[in-house]
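Help! Submission page says 'invalid entity' but I think these are all valid:
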Amino acid sequence: MVHALRETWRVLKPGGFLVDLRPISIDVPLYVLTDDGWKTTGMPDQSPDRVHDFAADQATRVLVGDGTLILVKRRYFSVSHYWNTFTALKQDVEEYWKEDVIISPEIWQQACQLYKSGRGKRRLHFPFRKKISLYQKVG
Amino acid sequence: MRSIRDPEGFEVKNLLIAAEFGGRQVLEIGCGNGWLTRQYAGHARQVIGIDPGFQDLLEARADQPVSMAHVTYAQLVGENLPFPSGSFDLALYSNSL
């Protein structure tokens, strides 16, 4: 990561900007949305992915530490993912997030029950937390 | 992905608040299938999106609007960039660092 950041630094113009936009592994609830409102099923465990957060934070700290980048600003926000079916959620978790997010059997069961018993249009909602950091090239 | 991702557009809104893209030459590292690229590229002068994933880049090119001729994609990794020093105003790590 540090090597990639240094290579990025090289191709930036003097005073150019580097934006680091990425998800952060903070546990957030999985929701079931129905015509009656929303209900939470519990918190999926995102801790397996925290090692990546830490490594990326460390890498940017190296370049800030040696004075080649300065942190200009940072923001946090949420990005929502919605699924219209329970099966689609399960397939996405299996295909894309198997290594990063652990959804316990209790949460799956709760989500399935709430989804099946919900009225009207039903959706599953997972609001990932994200971080965006703006750095400026020094030199 | 089978999900409906960010229908509120919060990701691009926050990106455009965080950084100024107007008139800038942008290198996006980890552009994937261009989902985010297409949303901000209209603000930039030139965008080069890179990603190691061949299939993702095929999707990015296929979904590229005709109006975005200033956007190009290349199969590259961030560790070894074939661009001269000082080529870009802005580099974006798009969920890829």
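Support: the input was valid. A stray whitespace character was the problem, and the output above is from the cleaned input. DSSP finds three helices and five strands in chain B.
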